[in-house]
Design goal:
Blueprint lengths: L2 E9 L2 H17 L3 E5 L13 E7 L2 H9 L1 H10 L3 E9 L3
Antiparallel strand pairs: 1-3, 1-4, 2-3
Helix pairs in contact: 1-3
């Protein structure tokens, strides 16, 4: 089953987070993911609002997890640590 990688982000260091974003996109694509929402308009209905929301679709939960744990994504993530407050989850879809 396909899976969605959903990130809610507040960027605190735009330069460092820009380095993360430059590396994260190719890592996600390498593992079969593609962006379906990226920093677009949103309406916060409940919970903590984060100004940046990203959704990527992967072929499976396992593919998304493999991406997260890959050397390529971990290198990207090294730039995001300390440069953003984030929540990230993977959820399996029903289609």
């Amino acid at each position: 089953m396909p899976a969605l990688w959903i990130a809610h982000v507040t960027v605190t260091d735009a330069d460092a987070y820009g380095r993360y974003a430059k590396l994260a996109g190719p890592a996600i694509e390498k593992h079969g993911g593609h962006f379906i929402a990226r920093a677009g308009r949103f309406v916060q209905l409940e919970g903590k609002e984060r100004p940046r929301n990203v959704v990527a679709k992967f072929p499976s939960v396992e593919a998304a997890e493999e991406c997260y744990n890959s050397p390529e994504y971990q290198e990207a993530l090294s730039h995001a640590r300390g440069a953003a407050e984030r929540e990230l989850l993977i959820v399996e879809t029903t289609e």
